[in-house]
Automatic annotation (TrEMBL):
The gene is carA. The keyword ATP-binding applies. HAMAP family: CPSase_S_chain. This is Carbamoyl phosphate synthase small chain. Residues 1-131 form the Carbamoyl-phosphate synthase small subunit N-terminal domain. GO terms for biological process: 'de novo' pyrimidine nucleobase biosynthetic process; 'de novo' UMP biosynthetic process; glutamine metabolic process; L-arginine biosynthetic process. Belongs to the CarA family. It is an enzyme of class 6 (ligase). Keywords: Amino-acid biosynthesis, Arginine biosynthesis, ATP-binding, Glutamine amidotransferase, Ligase, Nucleotide-binding, Pyrimidine biosynthesis. One of its GO terms (molecular function) is glutaminase activity. SMART domains: CPSase_sm_chain. Small subunit of the glutamine-dependent carbamoyl phosphate synthetase (CPSase). CPSase catalyzes the formation of carbamoyl phosphate from the ammonia moiety of glutamine, carbonate, and phosphate donated by ATP, constituting the first step of 2 biosynthetic pathways, one leading to arginine and/or urea and the other to pyrimidine nucleotides. The small subunit (glutamine amidotransferase) binds and cleaves glutamine to supply the large subunit with the substrate ammonia.
Length: 362
């Protein structure tokens, strides 16, 4: 069956349908990753977005039971050049096409993803419709341009109830803005006793859990859409060590007087070089974000910039000058992606340990 990708510029791409057959509207973005399509599809930071894979072939190793980053993926649609017809891997449980049908996610293949990516890089991320053959294009374009995309994305993907991943180590509260399971895996490797709480949990409720540290996770959308989280961060950061990742990084900056802006087409992929300013160390990192922290806005705050992206010099990390709090824009859990930066979880453990020692001397 023919499928049509319609951009809000009026440009159309004709391809072949796979996955679910429904029509959808979302924001079209691209990822430069060569592998890891299952982790990307189940990353809640892609909530409401149509994900374009720039690598020309996906689906070749199928979908397995181990690489889910969320229970219920909320990506809007998948756009690619070619999908493998016969996946081959010993862990594979189903094909990519079967996975998309199971989770009601439509896809389009056999389009020129290079041209689509060049269009996005030129015009920026934009709204798009994925249409079935025979649809009135003019009417669909009018509907697309009139559609306002939702801004309550974090509330859509955050857990609604508290849950625990018990262990014998540090007591860590993870505030779920749309977390990836790989964050929990990294904390589990370090024997952390983890309690995951909804994004709108208050500071008092978090402190009642007596955490050694608090983690602010990744998530979708505009960080300014959840101002209630900023009050929670301000109340906690002087009492408990904080570690923010991606959206959590942006929220930590906003809570301390920084500002954010929407990027033209964002960073999505697993090959972004980041420099640590203090040491000159360069890590290749996994990233997925459409907003960034304004570097100039950090100058008059209690934060200092610790990391920058080498290609465009955007802010990739900060730390508080006097309090035990730091954050990074990229994903040190790296699922998928290189594991250059997973040492940051060890830094978080050290921060909690040092804070505990200081408490014992008071």
């Amino acid at each position: 069956m023919e499928k049509i990708l319609l951009l809000e510029t009026g440009e159309t791409f004709y391809g072949e349908a796979f996955g679910a057959t429904k029509e959808v509207i979302g924001e079209v973005v691209f990822s430069t990753g060569m592998t890891g399509y299952q982790e990307s599809l189940t990353d809640q930071s892609y909530n409401g977005q149509m994900l374009t894979f720039t690598f020309p072939l996906i689906g070749n190793y199928g979908v397995n039971a181990d690489d889910f980053e969320s229970v219920d993926p909320t990506v809007k649609a998948i756009i690619c050049r070619e999908v493998a017809r016969f996946p081959s891997n010993w862990r594979s449980k189903m094909s990519l096409d079967d996975f998309l049908v199971e989770y009601d996610i439509p896809g389009i293949k056999h389009i020129d993803t290079r041209q689509l990516t060049k269009t996005i890089r030129s015009h920026g991320t934009m709204k798009a419709s994925l249409l079935n053959e025979g649809t009135d294009i003019e009417a669909a374009l009018a509907t697309l341009r009139a559609t306002e995309l939702p801004t309550d994305q974090v509330s859509q993907v955050s857990t609604k109830t508290r849950y625990v991943n018990p262990n014998a180590g540090k007591n860590v509260v993870v505030v779920d803005f749309g977390l990836k399971h790989s964050i929990l895996r990294e904390l589990n490797k370090r024997e952390c006793n983890v309690t995951v709480v909804p994004y709108d949990t208050t500071a008092q409720e978090i402190l009642r859990l007596a955490p050694d540290g608090v983690m602010l996770t990744n998530g979708p959308g505009d960080p300014t859409s959840i101002p209630e989280s900023l009050d929670m961060i301000r109340e906690i950061q002087g009492k408990i060590p904080l570690f923010g990742i991606c959206l959590g990084h942006q929220l930590l900056c906003l809570a301390n007087g920084g500002e954010t802006f929407k990027m033209k087409f964002g960073h999505r992929g697993f090959n972004h070089p980041v420099r640590e300013l203090a040491t000159g160390r360069i890590d290749f990192t996994s990233q997925n974000h459409g907003y960034a922290v304004d570097a100039a806005s950090i100058a008059n705050t209690d934060l200092e910039i610790t990391h920058i992206e080498i290609n465009d010099e955007t802010v990739e990390g900060v730390r508080h000058k006097t309090l035990p709090a730091f954050s990074v824009q990229y994903h040190p859990d790296a699922a998928p992606g290189p594991h250059d930066a997973d040492h940051l979880f060890d830094r978080f453990i050290d921060l909690m340990e040092n804070n505990k020692n200081l408490e014992g001397t008071i």
